[in-house]
Amino acid sequence: MTVSAWLPARVVSVTPTTPHARVLMLDVPGWPGNLPGQHLDVRLTAEDGYQAERSYSLASSGAGARVELAVDEIPDGEVSPYLVREVRAGDELEVKGPLGAYFVWRTDDPSPVQLIAGGSGVVPLVAIARARIAASASVSPMRLLYSVRSAGDALYAEEISTFEDRGVTTSWVYTRTAPDGWNGRTGRVDADLLADAVWSPSMNPLIFVCGPTGFVEAVADALVVSGHDPGRVRTERFGGS
Ligand SMILES: Cc1cc2nc3c(=O)[nH]c(=O)nc-3n(C[C@H](O)[C@H](O)[C@H](O)COP(=O)(O)OP(=O)(O)OC[C@H]3O[C@@H](n4cnc5c(N)ncnc54)[C@H](O)[C@@H]3O)c2cc1C
To answer: What gap in Å lies between CA 60 and CA 211, rounded to an integer?
Structure first.
């Protein structure tokens, strides 16, 4: 799958997934297809010619001209408020991709896989979990640990709640507000939580960690301290803290 030049992309649908995030379906004629975990660049051009580019993970994978993104609004951001509040079905953007050769999962890799997301960092991990669920021949055991401020901040919450029954073990951690009746963990992800919710180092899992920079660094450091092979911990930083 070679990286495309900038391609015109038509917005097919815009669906709220939280009060501040939207799932965008795009039709991209000429899209070369992508692997689970890859991202693309979006380019916006204003009427005066000013351009802004940002990276967005692909929630979709495989062949075909339709791609799926999920964008979480960063207050005071330049691009994400436009993609979340302004963009409508029928609008045109430009995209380039697929990008990223390292933060990808291949369905023929039999290793246990651990997915660890903070906030919107769940997007490429949803692509990986969907690919695992679709790949009936895959033998790779998969788990997801998803850290969000509150239940209402979770992207793809409804779909993720079905993962457990479809072979992807799921654990949640709420950093600020837990749902009523929650008797699991609340607070930041730490070594104790990772020991409970992550495949053990003895299984040598392939680990994908994605989210804000501070979250990714704290989790990756804690994993290595607890005995995981640094070469098996793949990280993707979304920026911010
Ligand atoms: C490989 C990759 C994949 C990404 N995938 C996604 C995705 O699937 N969904 C998604 O919503 N975003 C994703 N991002 C983040 C995205 O590229 C933008 O950084 C984000 O949308 C903010 O852009 P902005 O123009 O609105 O904010 P900017 O104008 O660039 O920044 C405004 C302020 O927000 C801070 N900031 C920027 N990004 C973040 C962030 N992610 N979290 C917290 N603070 C931030 C900046 O430090 C700055 O202070 C990804 C980033 C990378 C590098």
So the answer is: 18
